[in-house]
Amino acid sequence: MSDANTDLVYDPDQNPEEKREVRKNYRSLARLFDEHQANLTEHTAEELTKHIVQADELFTKVKGPQEATLDSALLLKASSMGARKARAMKSGSGTFEVDEFVSRLITFMGGRRTLEDREHDDSEVEQDGDAPLDWEKIGRRALAKSHRVPVLNFMLGPLSIEQKKRTVTKRAKLEKNKEDERKPEELKEEDILRSQNETTKNVLVLENILENEDGPINLFRFIINPKDFAQSVENLFYLSFLIRDGKVAMEINENGEPVVYMCEQPSDQDYAAGLKKQQMVMEFDMATWKRAIEVFNINESKVPQRPPAKIRLGSQWLG
Length: 319
Fold this sequence. Notes:
Blueprint: H1 16-38, H2 45-59, H3 65-88, E1 90-91, E2 94-95, H4 98-108, H5 115-120, H6 135-143, H7 189-211, E3 217-218, H8 219-223, H9 229-244, E4 248-252, E5 258-262, H10 268-272, H11 286-295, E6 311-313, E7 316-318
Antiparallel strand pairs: 1-2, 3-5, 4-5, 6-7
Helix pairs in contact: 1-2, 1-3, 2-3, 7-9
Protein name: Non-structural maintenance of chromosomes element 4
Family: Belongs to the NSE4 family.
GO cellular component, one term: Smc5-Smc6 complex
């Protein structure tokens, strides 16, 4: 924050105690600037100048990048506070107007020609905002008040900013062919009843087959159709209804094979006496289907082959 100093060089071997003292003082000044910004009207410009002078003196002891960073942060605080002070300034009955100041600055640098200049100009062409600004003119005036080398990085931005317009791209509406539009197919009650009737019929088929068996039968020999994996899955599904209702029992025999057989359906008295239903989840994928056919040498299906089920799509049946 101070003037250029020929003795100011980077010193990685600076005394640690001196570095800590510099950082401590910078943080102390930063707190003072924060207090001034919080209560701008209670502090005068002289107090701000006093703190800036203290920062300039402190800058002479800066020998490392961390301390220089603290100095830069303090410079930003001072600039922000100075701008707020300028806006709060009053000249007569009015406040400091930034727009008016910038307008006069442009005129001073030759961006706009005054009425007096136009009266002395014999040319009929009037120059307005297109005239180049004479920055050296304002630079010479500023050098009388500051010894710092002026650089462009301290500028807030161009005096004339063209506001960018956001381009909004409208999405084209998707035009659908009315002929391709279809209403959702409505599932009617008769469709549900037909599905239930189909399940009931197939469950009865499996029940009749088990009733004609002499005893327990291997689960896989009973449900697997060696020529149709899908119907093997369906057979297991239909068998689960019989087991759920207590008409069919399933257990593991002495050979470790799962077997199923018809049994007497439990009554309400049996459940009241402590009989409990048990559930199990059985995984049956195509690999298990193929392995069971190989292990148990299944060549024919115990359950007759059913015709492919028809699926109703709206008013049409698909086979």
